[in-house]
C-alpha cells in the first residue's frame, strides 16, 4: 500500500523547483512579518483610535496565529488536490485583501474578523512551502531552510521602519491599505510554482483509495468496509499517527515554545521599549538591527550543520539557554546600546533555533511526515498563542511594567531544554 506523498520523491540537490520553493518560503515569511509587525508598530495608535486596551489588540494578533493553525492540517490535502502553485496564489490574494479591508474598520472586533482571512492564507502557504523545500533538499536542507527563513529577518529589517514611515505619512488606515498592496505580490510566487511544477505527478493517496476500491468491488455495500476506508483515509491524509508519537511531541514543544516567544517579542517589544523611555523611532531601529542578527544566524547555521562542524543538538540547546536569559534581561535595560544588543541576541537565538528545529523534524520523523508535522505543530503553536497571547499585555495592564511579561516569555523559551536532551539520548541510543 502506497503512503501519501510517495508520488513526490525527495530531490537531494534542490534544482530549479527547489530554489523557487525557497524563494516562496522567503517571501511568505516576509509577508508574515509585514502583517504581525504592522500590528505591533501600530499598536499604540490603534489603541487610541479604536478605543481598545493593549491586551485586546495583542489578542487580535494572536488570533491571526490561532486561525492559521486551525486550518493548517488541511494544507496537505489542498496541496495534493490543487498543487502548490495554485494554493500559494490563492493564499497571496487572501493575505493581501485582509489589510486592505482592515483599513476601513471602526472597531477592534471588526479588525479581528478581517484578519482571520490573513491567518488562513499565511499558515496554509507556510506548510505547503516548507514541505516543498523539505522534499527537494537533503544534504543542504539546513542551508535551504535557513535561506527561506531569512524572510523573517528581512521583513523585520524592512517592515519595522517602513510601517513607521507609512504610519507617520498616511495614518494607520493608509498604512494598512499599502501593506495589503505589498502582500498581494506574494501571489506571483504561486504563479512561478505553477510554471515550474507543470509536470508534478499526481499524489498516490487518491490512487491508493482507488486501488482499494478496485480490489474490493464486492464489499462496496458493506458498512464496515466503508467505515474502515474512511478511517484509513483520515489517518493518512491528516497524519494522525503523529499524535501518538512521543518524538513528535518533544519536537512540538521545542517549536511551540520558540515560536510563541518570538511572536510575543514581535508584538510587544515596541511598546516595551517605549515604556523604558525610548522613542518609537528608536524601537523601530532596535527591531531592524535585530533583524540583521536573525539574518546572520539563519545564513550561518546551515553550513555549520550541513558540513558537520557542529551538531544540530548542541547548537539548538546552547541557544535555547542564551535566548531565555536575554528575554528575562530585556525589561531591565535602559541603555540604548544594551537594548540594541538585546534585540539582536533575541532574534539571533530565535532564528537559529527555528531553523534547526526544522532540521530535527526531518531527521527524527522523516520526509514523508514533514507536511503533517508542520501542520500539527502549527495548530499547537496557534493554540498556545490564542490561549496565552494576550497574557503579556494583560500583565502589563495589571502591573504597569513589562518586567513580569518578558520574564514569563523567557521561562517559556527555556522549557524545551529537557525534552531536547531526552530526545537526543533516545535517538543516539537507537543507532
From TrEMBL:
<feature type="transmembrane region" description="Helical">
    <location>
        <begin position="248"/>
        <end position="271"/>
    </location>
</feature>
<feature type="transmembrane region" description="Helical">
    <location>
        <begin position="373"/>
        <end position="396"/>
    </location>
</feature>
<feature type="transmembrane region" description="Helical">
    <location>
        <begin position="283"/>
        <end position="300"/>
    </location>
</feature>
<feature type="transmembrane region" description="Helical">
    <location>
        <begin position="55"/>
        <end position="74"/>
    </location>
</feature>
<keyword id="KW-1133">Transmembrane helix</keyword>
<feature type="transmembrane region" description="Helical">
    <location>
        <begin position="173"/>
        <end position="194"/>
    </location>
</feature>
<feature type="transmembrane region" description="Helical">
    <location>
        <begin position="402"/>
        <end position="426"/>
    </location>
</feature>
<feature type="transmembrane region" description="Helical">
    <location>
        <begin position="339"/>
        <end position="361"/>
    </location>
</feature>
<feature type="domain" description="Major facilitator superfamily (MFS) profile">
    <location>
        <begin position="1"/>
        <end position="431"/>
    </location>
</feature>
<keyword id="KW-0812">Transmembrane</keyword>
<dbReference type="GO" id="GO:0016020">
    <property type="term" value="C:membrane"/>
</dbReference>
<protein>
    <recommendedName>
        <fullName>Major facilitator superfamily (MFS) profile domain-containing protein</fullName>
    </recommendedName>
</protein>
<feature type="transmembrane region" description="Helical">
    <location>
        <begin position="111"/>
        <end position="129"/>
    </location>
</feature>
<dbReference type="InterPro" id="IPR036259">
    <property type="entry name" value="MFS_trans_sf"/>
</dbReference>
<dbReference type="InterPro" id="IPR050327">
    <property type="entry name" value="Proton-linked_MCT"/>
</dbReference>
<dbReference type="GO" id="GO:0008028">
    <property type="term" value="F:monocarboxylic acid transmembrane transporter activity"/>
</dbReference>
<feature type="transmembrane region" description="Helical">
    <location>
        <begin position="16"/>
        <end position="35"/>
    </location>
</feature>
<feature type="transmembrane region" description="Helical">
    <location>
        <begin position="150"/>
        <end position="167"/>
    </location>
</feature>
<feature type="transmembrane region" description="Helical">
    <location>
        <begin position="312"/>
        <end position="333"/>
    </location>
</feature>
<keyword id="KW-0472">Membrane</keyword>
<dbReference type="InterPro" id="IPR011701">
    <property type="entry name" value="MFS"/>
</dbReference>
<feature type="transmembrane region" description="Helical">
    <location>
        <begin position="86"/>
        <end position="105"/>
    </location>
</feature>
<dbReference type="Pfam" id="PF07690">
    <property type="entry name" value="MFS_1"/>
</dbReference>
<dbReference type="InterPro" id="IPR020846">
    <property type="entry name" value="MFS_dom"/>
</dbReference>
